[in-house]
Amino acid sequence: MKPLKRIVLAMFACSAPIVYAEPFAPLEPLSAELELGVIAITGNTESTAVKAKATIKQDFVAWKAKYQIDTLYKRGKNTPDDETTTTAQKLFMSAQGDYKLSSEDSSVFVYGSYTGDRFSGYEYQNTVSVGYSGRVFADEDSFLDYSVGPGYSFSQTDDGEEDETAIVHVELQYEYTISPNATFQQALSTEAALQNDKNTRSKSETSISVQLRDNLSMKAAYSLTHNSQVLDDKKNTDGTTSIIFAYTF
Question: How many whole angstroms from its chain centre is CA 223?
Answer without folding.
Answer: 11
